[in-house]
TrEMBL record:
One of its GO terms (molecular function) is adenine binding. Its EC number is 2.4.2.7. Pathway: Purine metabolism; AMP biosynthesis via salvage pathway; AMP from adenine: step 1/1. Keywords: Cytoplasm, Glycosyltransferase, Purine salvage, Transferase. It catalyses: AMP + diphosphate = 5-phospho-alpha-D-ribose 1-diphosphate + adenine. One of its GO terms (biological process) is adenine salvage. PANTHER family: ADENINE PHOSPHORIBOSYLTRANSFERASE (PTHR32315). This is Adenine phosphoribosyltransferase. Catalyzes a salvage reaction resulting in the formation of AMP, that is energically less costly than de novo synthesis. It comes from Sphingobium indicum BiD32. Pfam families: Pribosyltran (PF00156). Homodimer. InterPro entries: Ade_phspho_trans, PRTase-like, PRTase_dom, UPRTase/APRTase.
């Protein structure tokens, strides 16, 4: 296993706006050993929970969620932004820093009573992850845990999930925004 996955994360200063230190996971994804390592670490956390489905949040959560689903032999369900899914959908509107957005999934794709793991590449404020978890709960699913490659603890996302009764874990942490 790669000893320090953080070495594979590229930091891009002042993106998407001044003062933000963007943590770019694409450099880790391009490293075969790093991606295998990250997936194995996520699977080690997830395996004992014995989820029915892995749910990934658009967009990089699709990559990590699908890899995790494959590692665990589970199905994968994408949570998408508004208007991206071709079938009948259910959705939830949520507040962003400057406006609102909507997350959707195909109606009936997450069965009532399903035990799910929510996956994304990074947790910052937690707004999107909390909304995704709420949408899954509205469909009758039990969100066992939310898993992230990267946690930015200063922004409070993990605490926001835990305040909603959702266990959350990150593989790496970075200071700052």
């Amino acid at each position: 296993m790669t000893s320090d996955l953080t070495d594979l994360i590229r930091t891009i200063p002042d993106f998407p706006k001044p003062g933000i230190q963007f943590r770019d996971i694409t450099t880790l994804l391009a490293d075969g050993e790093g991606l295998r390592d990250l997936t194995a670490r996520l699977a080690d956390i997830a395996r004992p929970l014995d989820a029915d489905l892995i749910v990934g949040i658009e967009a990089r959560g699709f990559i990590l969620g699908a890899a995790l689903a494959l590692a665990l032999g589970k199905g994968f369900v994408p949570v998408r932004k508004k208007g991206k899914l071709p079938g009948k959908t259910v959705g939830i509107d949520y507040v962003l820093e400057y406006g609102t957005d909507r997350l959707e999934l195909h109606e009936g794709q997450v069965p009532q009573g399903a035990r799910v793991l929510l996956v994304d590449d990074l947790i910052a404020t937690g707004g999107t992850a909390v909304a995704a978890a709420q949408l899954l709960r509205e469909q009758g699913a039990s969100v066992l845990m939310a898993l992230f490659a990267i946690d930015l603890p200063e922004l409070g996302g993990m605490a926001a999930l835990e305040a909603e009764g959702i266990a959350a874990r990150g593989i790496m942490t970075f200071d700052g925004h």
